[in-house]
Amino acid sequence: MANTIVATNSETKRQQVWPIPAFxxxxxxxxxxxxxxxLLQMLSWEQCAMVVFSGVALSGGIVFTIATMQRLGKxx
Length: 76
Prior knowledge:
Blueprint lengths: L3 E5 L6 E5 H21 L4 H31 L1
Antiparallel strand pairs: 1-2
Helix pairs in contact: 1-2
């Protein structure tokens, strides 16, 4: 449990265990979405498309990196 975050629901008293990389991914995705929606209000559609595709590429790179690190950890 060294690489996990444990959250306890105050109403049900149930614990939910989140792996740290998954928890970080959620935070990054929420921040990315907030940034994109804030920027999209001021940009032309070409600039909006560039921002959206950049976000998709960033997210894909993060997922690929984490998956590769986990795979290499299991092999070694």
